[in-house]
Amino acid sequence: MSSTVEQAVSELSVPVPWGEIRGKVWGPDHGYPVLCLHGWLDNCGTFKTLIPLLPKGLQWKKFSIMGHSMGGNVAGMVTKIHLMQLITVFTQYTGTIFLLFLAWYHIWSKLCFLQFSALYPEMVDAVILLDSFGFISTDSKNLSKVMRQGMDEMLHHEKKTEEKKRVYTYEKAVERLSAANPTLSEQSVRILLERGLVQVEGGFVFSRDLRLNFKNIPCISPEQSLEMQSKIQASVLVVLGDKGFAATFPESNQQLPSSKLLKAYRDRNHTVVTVSGDHHVHLNDPEAVAPLVSDFLRNKVLSQQLLA
Fold this sequence. Notes:
By secondary structure, the chain is of the alpha/beta class. The chain has 11 helices and 10 strands. The strands form 2 sheets. Strands 1-2-4-3-5-6-9-10 form an 8-stranded mixed β-sheet, with helices on both faces. Strands 7-8 form a two-stranded antiparallel ribbon. A hairpin with a 2-residue loop joins strand 7 and strand 8 (about 205).
């Protein structure tokens, strides 16, 4: 592990109307800023093994998305908070150029910030997708059905009295997360639990918000996905695991076939590579991913900064 990175780790807290968004900052204050966003039911610990292997001189800002770990609870209507968090996170760093570093496939992190890359291309230098195609879409004919289902689930939950979370011993929590995510190594499970558990009387509870399991309300159609993708001006690196997302969700189950999205990236001279590994390869086996990410950062980002 790089001693520079190891010595420059601090907690990050951004005040928001529903509480705070928390995370970590790695690297020097003057370093080129990289915004790291995790995915569904994950937390910012997902980057812990990978970042120390990447080029020095960068400042990594790792946020826990709302409802995940220390990202604050999903209070009220999720659509409003989804938009509020998007605005809050980026307005904290007005005028700063970002590289968006996305992992996992959850629509809130991936879709939300790829949309930002399309809407505000002048603010984004590069995008890295880890075992993700960048967009998950819903067929236009099903949009209203899916959105209503998400709203109904949320409204039904709001009518309930507060439910007690199940309390686990630490080892039982390890077993629970391992069973739900069989591709995670034991080390990776324990890394995610560093921020994924809260100690309470009698043991530990998972810190994520249960409403994350509801149907996603913000939906876009396949046509809108491709149109949004075409507006991204930043350089894009897509790193896929050969046993990852594509293997878990074959094209026959996708509203927008991944082959179309990947072809569109290649047609725009973006980089798409496949490594040996599963959906968590960046966490389980960071050495397989780090050289690809490092070369991309040096060639597409750091070299341009030197020329600026």
